[in-house]
Amino acid sequence: xxxxxxxxxxxxxxxxxGDMAVEDYLKSVMKVSSRNRQRLFRSKNVxxxxxxVHSKQRIKGGDMxxxxxxxxxxxxxxxxxxxxxxxxxxxxxIVLNKPANMLVHPTGQTDSFTLANFLxxxxxxxxxxxxxxxxxxxxxxTTGCVLFAKKPEYQTKLEAQxxxxxxxxxxxxxxxxxxxxxxxxxxxxxxxIGKVPGxxxxxxxxxxxxPAVTHFKLVEEIGPNTLLELWLETGRTHxxxxxxxxxxxxxxxxxxxxxxxxxxxxxALHAAAIQxxxxxxxxxVEVTAPMPMDMQExxxxxxxxxx
Length: 307
Known about the structure:
alpha+beta, four-stranded antiparallel sheet, single chain, RluA_PseudoU_synthase, 2 domains, Structural Genomics Hypothetical 15.5 Kd Protein In mrcA-pckA Intergenic Region, Chain A, EC 5.4.99.-, ten-stranded mixed sheet
C-alpha cells in the first residue's frame, strides 16, 4: 500500500497537565477520538519530545506532544454513483440533502445504496479519497440536512458541539390533531425514551430510559393537522416521532408510531436546517434544506380541502 503523506500536530504541555498519561492528554486536550488514538499508538505515531511513546507514558509541563496526522486512504464504504444533493461544501465539511427511503450509512445487512455510499462515489468522481464521517443520522424516511466531516480532527470538534448541545438541528413535521400548544404551552416536551424489549429498532416513552427534550413552535394548523417547527435539546433515536406519539400527536404517515396516511407515503418529517460553528474558522454556519415535494403537496392538499 502506498504510504500516506502526513504531518505532525504538536502541543506544548501546560503545567496543569503534568503527570497525566499521554493517552488521556490526547483525549482531553488534543481531542483525538478513541478510534484514532488506537490507530496512533498501534502505529507508534505518538511522540513526546521527539520519541515514540506508549499510551501510559506520563508527561510533564513543558513537554512537546506530537501526533501523526494521517491522510485518508479509504472511503470507509463502497463508493457508488447515486443522487447527491449538496447543500453546502468547503474543505472541512459537506452538508447533503438526504431523500426519503434511504439510509444515511450502511448498517446491518445493508451495505450499499446509502447516502454514505453515494457521497463516497461523489468524492471518487472528483478524484478525492475522503473517509465518510457522518456527524449524525436521520431515519430512512426522514429527509433533509446531514452533516459530514472531511477530516478526523474536524469530526472531533463537531462531535464536541453535538455533545455540548451547541449544534442545532431544526425540523419541520406535520402532525395529527390540533391544540398541542394548549397541552404544552411552553412548546417543550420532556420525557425519557427507552428501547422496546425484543424490538431493537423501536423506542418508547419510558421513565427508566434516557432523558430526552424536544422543543417546538406551532407554524400553522391545517384542518385536523398541525405543521410544527421542532428542535432537539437531546438526540435520541426516533426522538421527535416518539415524543409526538407520547403527546398524542403522532407524525402524519408514521407507520411505526402512528398510522399510514393516504396523503403521504412516509412520516412527514424533514430536517430543515442545521447550525454549527465551523471547525476551522469558528464562524457560525447555517445550512437549510427546502421542504420536499411530498410534504409540500401534502400541505397543499390539506389546505385545499379545509379552506
